[in-house]
Design a protein that fits this description.
By secondary structure, the protein is of the alpha+beta class. The protein is built from ten helices and 18 strands. The protein has two domains: 244 residues, P-loop containing nucleotide triphosphate hydrolases (Rossmann fold), CATH 3.40.50; 50 residues. The protein is elongated, with a radius of gyration of 24 Å. It binds adenosine-5'-diphosphate and magnesium ion.
Length: 358
Amino acid sequence: MSVQERTFGEQALAISPHAAGVRLAGVRKSYGDVVAVDGVDLEIEAGEFFTLLGPSGSGKTTTLRVIAGFERPDDGRVELGGVDVTDRPPYLRDVNTVFQDYALFPHMTIADNVAYGLRVKGVGRAERKARVDDVLETMRLPGVGGRKPSQLSGGQRQRVALARALVNQPEVLLLDEPLGALDLKLRQEMQLFLKSLQQELGITFVYVTHDQDEALTMSDRLAVFNLGQIEQLGSPAEVYERPANAFVAGFVGVSNVIERDGSRFAVRPEKIRMTETDTAPTAGSHAEPGRIKGVVYAGMVTRYVVELDRGGELQVVRQNLETSSAEALDAQGRNVILEWRPEHQLELDWEGEREGER
Ligand code: ADP
Ligand code: MG
């Protein structure tokens, strides 16, 4: 199919001539007895940075492979830019994938690696060179075209893998844990870089990660996966501040879930005030007495685990404004009062809860 024949959604045109939305309807995929994707409905807008977040084995990669066309769903439909592509092979979808392990050809130069897709499509030598130089420049990799992958750092290799996908000018870029192999500092740098790259290009990114910080930092919206299904879909703030159930509350953020009088709720650690037992209670706040059971000093903050007198335990995080590590650790065993404002008590559904991770 030629570029002219392709149908774009109106929204796609408004964002970037190369962006397309993605729609999954009732997608299922099993491998033998294992149901990897268990009825996923999803609408990703053109130009959106959308993340599939979930624990290992929750069906993120399989969902991505279904979008790319590497897997055919047992049931359901895949649409790109409003067009049903369920029966189309990967090379007839305007989608490229970046994998965690880069999958570069070790014997080829960087320039040949990046040019590979263009060569397969029959793009002429002059245009190939121009587009490869251009994309290497965009990826802040000028001048490395003549080297082999083994002569680059991990971070550079990851950017080559990105260049190799982007040189094909896909409407949708799929990224499967692309930063998983990098150390923390480089990963954080690359998170910012990828986010600004996506905004600059205006194309749709579908990003897979098991790292909640990464998902919260980078995404316009995200879907939380568990056991092949979506537990919640929304903006980072919606998912963090209003988790739909105990699984989401625990996976996105610290699992501060307690049960009271037949209901169940979560309180984020940073929303809890911990005071001495002889301090006057704050008006309008909920107060619970307890005892400090564990202290973890983490430099910037200290995390306390408090066992509540009425049962259950909560984590509290305190900035070490004026506290030394010795003072923090000394709090072990002390009786305290935990206070939080009623609006920070997040009610959780019992309905439809599916326990456990694979
Ligand atoms: P994630 O990317 O979230 O870790 P996956 O989509 O890779 O999850 O896997 C979902 C489930 O499907 C897991 O239980 C996994 O073991 C299984 N699975 C994935 N790919 C295959 C395969 N090719 N053959 C058999 N089982 C698979
Ligand atoms: Mg995976």
